[in-house]
Specification:
Layout (H helix, E strand, L loop, with lengths): L22 H8 L6 E5 L5 H8 L3 E5 L12 E7 L7 H14 E10 L8 E5 L4 E5 L2
Parallel strand pairs: 1-2, 1-3, 3-4
Antiparallel strand pairs: 5-6
């Protein structure tokens, strides 16, 4: 199971507090990319999981802070939105390894990353009043 870095203790504070599902999840669903048993890896507060369940999908979420029950079994589809950008390189490698172990051999994983981050490193989170890490 993915171990949080002592050097990046506030990664969970970067979770987007959204009222509806994310654009990447809506796009994947509308275009028929989400198939079979689905895992939202790094689901945060679970808005995408909630949305996909309402649409009749077989979905579960995992987030080491917000939904800490590690998933069991293999998945046909894994989505991982805006997670890698808030993790340090060693944490990113751990997430990629875990996802590869949870994915069925014929399954597909979709990753969404922010492309607007100009400089990697720690920055002050104005709402949470602490340092958080973000990278390109």
């Amino acid at each position: 199971m993915f171990i949080k870095s002592k050097n990046n203790p506030n990664a969970h504070l970067t979770v987007k507090e959204r009222q509806k599902s994310s654009f990447p999840t809506r796009h994947l669903l509308q275009n028929g990319y989400l198939e079979g048993r689905i895992l939202d890896f790094g689901c945060g507060t679970g808005k995408d999981v909630e949305f996909l369940k309402q649409k009749g999908c077989d979905v579960e979420g995992y987030d080491p802070y917000y939904a800490a029950d590690f998933p069991k079994g293999k998945f046909d589809t894994i989505i991982c939105h805006y997670v890698l950008n808030v993790l340090m390189p060693e944490e990113q490698a751990g997430v990629l390894m875990e996802i590869s172990e949870l994915l069925k051999p014929t399954g597909t994983a979709y990753f969404t990353v922010r492309r607007d981050i100009k400089k990697s490193g720690f920055r002050y989170h104005t709402k949470k009043h602490c340092e958080v890490y973000q990278c390109k």
